[in-house]
Design brief:
single chain; mainly alpha; two-stranded antiparallel ribbon; 2 strands; 2% strand
Length: 265
């Protein structure tokens, strides 16, 4: 194991311990997507006659993507900006700790937290809204690569936006507002994308959240709901391509925006 990876794993353990000691943050992180899912699924609980799928099941599948985006994009955007503002990044550089090790630690935190959050979401979906878990290895395989690529792309975008924020407070506003908008235009909160203005739907297709939601719906929902998708198919190949492209693009953005000092300092 290389020194950078070893230090990254050690940093990841510290990040996990710090996170799980903050009980309020843990409860908020894990409960918010589930609460939103419960509210939407309870309000829009009718059966779609054409697909035979309830809107509750649709939201349970789609919010898997929304929950991952919240854990990775929002938490990293705020977390990295906070570490910069309170001097943590400068102190880690003085240890010294390579920058890649710091980010490996953050990725470990996001990966573990996302797994736990998805488990909560799926548990609620199965227990209360009739969500059916995949019954084939192929669907679980799809779940795995959408999960990994989704975490990677959203994490990199979160790190990138932390560099654009002047302070940790502005990072809170930027990440939460950005995710709220994306949840609507990416089809996470809207069951039928045809209900969106065409410009919004097209704009949403440029971002990873739309493809993550579509990927998870392909795992948890039957093909009878395909008429609701913009292309009328699950587009697994395009989903993988777009998410991979965002991983590369997000990495480039991180390299150009990451900084150790806060602009206000």
């Amino acid at each position: 194991m290389s020194n950078a990876l070893r230090l990254g794993v050690a940093r990841g353990i510290v990040e996990l311990k710090t996170f799980f000691r903050q009980k309020e943050a843990v409860v908020f992180t894990f409960s918010l997507p589930a609460v939103i899912m419960v509210i939407l699924a309870s309000i829009f609980s009718s059966l779609d006659s054409e697909s035979g799928v309830t809107m509750s099941q649709f939201y349970a599948a789609s919010m898997t993507a929304g929950g991952i985006a919240s854990t990775s994009f929002v938490n990293l955007g705020i977390g990295v900006a906070t570490d910069r503002q309170n001097g943590t990044l400068k102190r880690l550089r003085g240890v010294p700790m390579p920058t890649p090790s710091y980010f490996i630690g953050k990725v470990i935190l996001v990966f573990v937290a996302s797994l736990a959050e998805v488990a909560v979401l799926l548990g609620v979906g199965v227990a209360f809204f009739g969500l059916e878990l995949p019954d084939s290895a192929a669907k679980w395989g799809t779940f795995a690569w959408v999960f990994v690529l989704g975490i990677a792309s959203c994490s990199l975008l979160g790190i990138a936006i932390s560099g654009l924020a002047r302070t940790a407070q502005s990072a809170i506003a930027m990440t939460n507002l950005g995710l709220l908008i994306l949840n609507f235009i990416s089809g996470i909160y809207v069951m039928h994308l045809a209900l969106l203005p065409k410009g919004m739907a097209i704009a949403g297709s440029f971002f990873p959240l739309k493809w993550m939601g579509q990927g998870f719906r392909s795992v948890f929902l039957p093909d009878t709901v395909l008429y609701q998708e913009m292309a009328g198919s699950w587009e697994h190949g395009r989903t993988a391509l777009v998410l991979a492209a965002w991983c590369i693009g997000g990495l480039v953005l991180c390299m150009t925006t990451f900084r150790l000092r806060d602009r206000a300092s």
